[in-house]
Specification:
The model has no long low-confidence stretch (mean pLDDT 92). Helix content is 45%, strand content 1%. The longest helix is centred in the middle third of the chain and has 16 residues, at 138-153. A two-stranded antiparallel ribbon has the order 1-2. With 334 residues, the chain is mostly helical.
Length: 334
Amino acid sequence: MVNWKSFLNADPAEWLLEENNPSVRYFTLRDIFERPENDLEVREAKADIMKIGTVPKILAKQEDGGYWGIPDNFYLRGKYKGTSWQLIILAELGADSADERIKNTCEFMLKNSQDPESGAFSYISDNNGVGDAERILPCLTANMVWSLIRLGYMDDERVQKTLEWLITHQRFDDEPVELPEGEHYKIWKKCWGERTCHSIIVKSLKAFSEIPENKRTPEMENCISKCAEHMLNHSIHKRSQPPAEGRFKWLKFGFPLMWNIDALEVLGLLTKLEYKDGRMQEAMDIMISKQNGEGRWTLENTFNGRFQTSIERKGRESKWITLNALRVLKSYYR
């Protein structure tokens, strides 16, 4: 059996464990060193997430109602400083779901962005102050449900309704097809057109992968399988089917990705779901080749300058990209 560390030019673990980034330290202890949640260092790192670095900087700018800036600028006009984006970042960084400020943000998005009838999420509220059914976005819906699951809302009936919407509406079209009946398909032809937007597929895969295996329904498992197979058929990072043309932007790794996707994210999701498939190998080899002599990866793609606070610097060694690459290697070559 191949040791996953043999693919590293050097071991970056001690660098990832530095105390200046408690989120990376926590996830490194948990995912790379496999320390249990009740381990003293793990508990200390998790507590520090709310005290040191990015999470407290974001929360310091939060308004009393659980939002940032102007309430109705939570998505489109607030890119990437609006409330929906902060919820994604806080979930990515491992913010404490028991914190009242985090709960307030979750409830704000559920009230203002979710269409109560369908369960999907909209980029704007309607005249009744709830998610506008005619402004639903599939990728936003998947991102919101992933964030809410990550922040403790998995069993909430509103989140379960969103998961049902994703299962019902998810498409995997590679060739021109006639769209089914339904207002959502008519409104968002760009999302559900001749070739289904890969962002929707990957973010849905991300949402369902966050659900523990023993809590997934057969319908969820079926959706996971279809999402995974779609990306495998595209060799992770390629546009057409059969895969011929590369999406070179997907080979520039970023964090946090928001609505965007890249090959590292897809590899991370597939390996988390225990996929080991030859169609992943080209993307794996590219990922491995991107490390430097210290076994560290660089932040190549970022929305920095548009966040509430910057997260790492473009062109510099990235603890987040390195951590995600290690997760992939460890899972794939386990």
